[in-house]
Amino acid sequence: MKFSRPKSLRNRPTHYCAGCGHGIVHRIVAEIVDELGIRERIVAIAPVGCAVLAYDYWDFDCSEAAHGRALAVATGIKRARPDLVVLSYQGDGDLAAIGTAETIHAANRGENLTCIFINNACYGMTGAQMAPTTVRGQKTATTPWGRRPEEGEGYPLIISELLAKLKGVCYVERTTTMKPKEVIKLKRAVKKAFLNQINKKGFSLVEVLSPCPTGWGMNAVSAVKFVEDKLSKEFPLGIIKDET
Amino acid sequence: MAEGIVFKKPQDKYPKKKKTWALTGAKGRPQNIIRSLYLGEGVLEQHNLKLQKKYRLIEQKEVRFKQYIPSEAQLLIVAYGSMHRLAKDIVAELNKVKKKAGLFCPLTLWPFPYRALEKVKTRVKKVLVIEMSYGQMIEDVRLSLGKDIPIYFFGRAGGEVPQKDEIINYITKKRLL
Fold it and tell me: Which CATH number fits domain B65-173: 3.20.20.70, 3.40.50.720, 3.40.50.920, 1.10.101.10?
C-alpha cells in the first residue's frame, strides 16, 4: 500500500503549531472527500479561528463565514444547492461560544449538513483565553489559576450532548486525535457524517478533542496527555447519538 | 401621508452573467474561495485599491437625487426619505403664498450628490436641512456648500415626526423667507 497525499489536500507547508490537531483532521476530511468522490461537489465553510485557512490546504470550494455563523452560511448553500455536499468546520470558540445560537438552530431545524467541531477547550488563535468549553481547573490566559466553576466561572459547555437532545440531529460522536486508534475512529465518524448527508438523514456532528500545545503552554506530548487525562474526562469519547 | 408605488416589470430571476466566483463544486476548474481575509504581504492593500476603484465608479454612476427649484427661490430645503415627503408639502404651501422655496432631495445618501447640490448654491440665499434626527445628512450638506451660504437645521429624534406647521413656524421665526 502506497502512502500518499490525498488529491483533495494541497502540497504546502502548514501554518499550524507543532502538535496541533487541525492538520490531522484536515487530512482526514481530504481522505474521505477522495474516498467518497465528492471533491467536485463539496463546499466547506471555514470558521473564524486558526482553521480559517483550511481553504489553503483543501483543494475544493470553500467560504469564510462571520465568527460563529458557519452553520448559517452552510444552511444557505445547502438549501440553494441541495445537490452539493456542505461541510461546516468549526472550533469551539466559533461553534460553542459566539455561534451557539446558529449552531443550535441549524441542528434543531435538522439541516442536512455535516459539521466537524474541533474542541481545544480555549480560544486558541487569540492567545488561549477561557472558552465556554474550558475544562475545570484548566489554566488559560484569562484563568491563570485554573477555571473555577464554583467561583462563577461557569462549567464546561457540553454542546454535543445538548445537540444530541434535538430531534433534528441524527448523529453525534465525540472523537479525538490523541492516538492512532482514536484517529481511525475519527475517520470512521467523519465518513459516517458525510454519508448521512449524502443519504439525506439530517444533521450530523463530529466533535474532535484536539490538543493546542501553544495555547495550553505545553509541549506536544504533554498536550496529548492533557487531552487524555482532562479533556476526555470532561467530554467522554464515543457515540452520543446515532439514529441513522 | 402615503407614498405612491410603481410596480416595474419583473426582471429575469437569474442574471445572465455567469458567476465564475460561485461555490458550485470545483468541477473542471480550480477551487473557488469566498473570503475577506488576506494575510499575504501587500495582498490586502491590492484588494483595498480594487475596492476604492469600485467605490469611485459607484460615486460616478450611482448618484441619484430629485430637485425642484423655482426661479427666484430664496430658500432651499434639503431633505430625504419621509422628511422629503413632508418638505414637498411645505414647499407647495410656501409657494402658494408667494414665498419662493425650492427642494433638493438626495435619493442616494451614499454616494451623496455633492456636485449637484453645489451647483444649486448660486440659485438660493439660504438652506434649511430637515431630518428625523439631530443632524446626520447635514454634514454632507455642509461639505457640499461650504461656508458661502447660511445653513439652518430642524430635526426631531426618537421617532417623532416633525409637523408641517412647526417647520413653517421655524422658517418664519428665523426669517428664512
Answer: 3.40.50.920
